Amino acid sequence: MMIPPEEYNRFADLIKRLVVLDVLARALEIDQRGMERLPLKFGRVWKETMAEVMQRVEQERVQCRRQLRRCGGHIVEVRQWSDAREVQARFRGFFYRHWFDNEWLRSECEEWLRSYWREGKNTRQQTPRTRSH
Q: Minimal CA–CA distance to 85: which of 97, 75, 100?
């Protein structure tokens, strides 16, 4: 049975997306713990922003896992090597191995994080109201 290329590409894109979201979620957890130890002037704002981004990442992870299951795929195993993340996944009875370079993952996570921040800024009021004294 031959799997159509567009179906395999959808599966591979979902694997890639899920790996990036997993790495981003883990990195945000680590950064959040680190922020707790810093004497930040705007700590409350950073914590709220971090919580919003983490919630969005988690929602997207859940959605991505559902889409992966619906298309007939799932991740079997993930191994972290010194220079890459290896992901073994199953799709419609076949096993596939994907490699994601650590530097590529870092770059992708940074871009995703920037996009979450931009989206968050665009959904808030453009100019805060000032109080008169």
A: 100
Query: What is this structure's pTM?
Result: 0.87
Q: pLDDT tens, 26-48?
A: 999 999 999 989 999 999 999 99
Report pLDDT digits (tens) over 44-72. Answer: 999 999 999 999 999 999 999 999 999 99
